[in-house]
Amino acid sequence: MTEIKKIGTIKLIICDDLKNTAKHGAKIFAEAIRKKSDLVLGLATGGTPVELYKELIRMNKEGALSFRQVNSFNLDEYLGLAGDHPQSYRYFMNKNLFDHIDIEKSNTHVPDGTSENPDISCKQYEESIKEANGIDLQLLGIGSNGHIAFNEPGSSLTSRTRVVDLKENTINDNARFFSNKSEVPKKAVTMGIGTILEAKKIVLIATGANKKDAVSKSLNGKPNPNIPASFLQNHPDCTFIIDNEAS
User: Fold this and answer.
1) 136 included as an active-site residue
2) Which of 53, 111, 183, 187 lies at a 20 to 30 A Cα distance from 75?
3) Given 60, 145, 151, 174, which residue is catalytic?
């Protein structure tokens, strides 16, 4: 059973489990691409989006959806990891989506984690998004501390793409993807909250009991820099898709 409600400006969809959250999310993305074949997507990494990407891959393989004219911009990348590193987000996106659909690789953009001048490459990333006429549909996950992308608690509402220090909480959460915690990078490049909020439509997906507190704090109360996802209350077209455990 799926429950749909409105909390302020945010549409909340509560699904039974991860599989159904992925199906609801993929449906939104597929419908948007069918309406606008050259859609500009904002994409996310992490455990939560993988099932959604599997749904999009299935649609593409079955001939029901094409990414041939789609452009994409990823939210973030670890500073210091090259795109061929198994834990880089470029590697993740290739493995979990791009290598399995008909998207042009040249139309896929991930922040440069090995730039000799990260500040300049961050500004160039912002310019690339503007040149693409902005992001039409942005996918987000949420950290257990309420971060979106790598915008940690305390991030400014007007922040842009930049280099950030990762909080201990985030490093701990991401340690499961590395051989040991000491290998987790301490810095990352991330789109800013201001950048994210300029997307025309936003979909945030959260699953699991460990996200329940962050989701609740994001939806209830006033926007708060200590809960970066709460700034999504300022967006006119934002949907949260969560499972029962996260509700």
Assistant:
1) no
2) 183
3) 145
